[in-house]
Design a protein that fits this description.
alpha/beta, 7-stranded mixed β-sheet, 13 strands, about 15% strand, globular, binds pyridoxal-5'-phosphate
């Protein structure tokens, strides 16, 4: 039987309908236990859900567990110990919506974010809904490697990349380039991750205009779902670099383009272990299409995780409720900005003969590009073995520095070790080449 949600999506967003995967078309939130339990919430006699309570809706925790949550108000402690609704705790969804929409004009419509278990889970839900066997997914190369697992390995989607940088500068046309060979009319996904991992880059205003225009041109050719991976949202360190999510610029841009926002507390609120992420669609929360999409997401979430983690949501809520949260987030940003500036200065001194820094201005990373004859993996292993220095090697010729996890004072020495290590690997390589001649 076809889910009734499909009709709403077909009617209100033909773009999303065209882009839905076979799995995305199949799923709808079942009217089983969590649904029936939600309907019965507050009844005098509630014998719905298999959750151990005192008979009045409060949990019966082990005292050892309760002690760990001792600082919480009773209501929060209760919520932390019981099941979360499948879509997330309403207070957390509302609070995150306010957080996301700081400074966003009321005219830009977005729904109530659905809670996910970290951003990876938000991405995998988007992949389940819109990817699938053969579906084209445009990404900028180099990209966060887990996109391969999430989209291609799991669903069979066809990851198509185009360079993130050209001639040492950001390439805002990567989506159009990546999809150039895809026949007109065929739906596609694009992942736009700003600030980027591994690049640590956010387009400056002119580049961002080009990026938006390019996405609109691509939507002339096909239904296009753009997944805005906002993992590093807000971590911008240069004036003149737009810090607001691209999601807001894409709403109502073109009828054949639907943006989806994937964000969360992991990096934005420096709550890595909490695993609280969000998935947001550009439709009013009470609209038929938003409810149809919520039903599909909730079905997938219920089928895999049961429900999202209540305890972590309550921890996040303690922060989101307070006026001071923005100032505390700003303190973290300022600390990273100081590291960024030290690293930018140190990398600015590279002569560029064997290794050069690609432009970076935001996020947690800087990306180094090695000369073609030097193998990044070999440099990585050499730095680890001889210089007590760990970096990530990517795509054969890139090294990623996570300056978010190195002390400011240590960054100049880190760069000196990289320069030394690269030179050593390069000279060993040229000796080997001479020897084999
Ligand atoms: C670009 C990008 N997206 C998503 C994620 C996943 O975030 P989470 O740890 O919340 O799953 C990461 C984490 O490193 C990331 O770098």
């Amino acid at each position: 039987v076809e889910p009734i949600e499909n009709e709403a999506i077909r009617r209100h967003s033909p773009t999303l309908w065209a882009a839905l995967s076979p799995l995305g078309r199949r799923v709808r939130y079942p009217k089983d236990i969590p649904f029936q339990a939600a309907e019965a919430r507050g009844s005098a006699f509630n014998g719905t859900i298999g959750q151990i309570t005192d008979g009045r809706g409060a949990p019966i925790p082990l005292p050892l567990v309760e002690r760990a949550l001792a600082g919480l108000e009773d209501a929060d402690r209760g919520a932390a110990l019981l099941y979360s609704p499948v879509a997330g705790l309403p207070a957390v969804r509302e609070a995150w919506r306010r957080w996301q929409r700081r400074g966003v004009p009321d005219g830009l419509v977005s729904g109530l974010p659905l809670v996910t278990v970290g951003l990876t889970h938000g991405l995998s839900l988007a992949a389940d809904l819109f990817a699938g066997e053969g579906r084209a997914v445009a990404v900028a190369e180099p990209f966060w490697g887990n996109y391969r697992q999430t989209f291609a390995t799991r669903t069979g989607a066809d990851l198509r990349s185009a360079p993130a940088y050209r001639d040492g500068a950001y390439n805002p046309l990567f989506v159009e380039e990546a999809l150039a060979d895809l026949p007109d009319g065929e739906p596609a996904l694009a992942i736009v991750n700003l600030p980027s991992n591994p690049g640590g880059y956010s387009p400056v205003s002119a580049e961002r205009r080009d990026l938006v225009a390019s996405l609109a041109r691509e939507a002339e050719r096909r239904p296009l779902v753009v997944i805005c991976d906002d993992a590093y949202s807000g971590l911008v360190y240069e004036v003149g670099v737009p810090a607001e999510s691209l999601f807001w610029s894409l709403i109502d841009l073109h009828p054949a383009l639907v943006p989806i926002k994937v964000d969360g507390a992991t990096k934005e609120l420096s709550l890595f272990g909490g695993r609280v992420g969000f998935l947001t669609f550009p439709f009013a929360a009470d609209s038929e299409v938003a409810q149809a999409l919520d039903s599909k997401v909730m079905c997938l979430l219920r089928a895999t995780l049961g429900s999202p983690v209540a305890t972590a949501q309550i921890v996040l809520l303690q922060a989101l409720r307070e006026e001071g949260v923005a100032a505390e987030v700003e303190t973290v940003r300022t600390r990273l900005a100081a590291r960024y500036r030290v690293l930018r200065t140190a990398l600015g001194k590279l002569d560029g003969s064997k290794v050069r820094a690609l432009p970076f201005n935001s996020g947690c990373f800087a990306l180094l590009e090695l000369s073609p004859e030097i193998d990044a993996e070999r440099v990585r292993r050499h730095l680890l073995a001889e210089h007590d220095t760990g970096l990530v090697a990517l795509g054969g010729r890139y090294l990623r520095i996570a300056f978010c996890s190195v002390r400011k004072e240590d960054l100049p020495e880190l760069v000196r070790r990289i320069v030394r290590g690269v030179a050593e690997v390069a000279s060993a390589g040229s000796l080997e080449r001479a020897g084999s001649r």
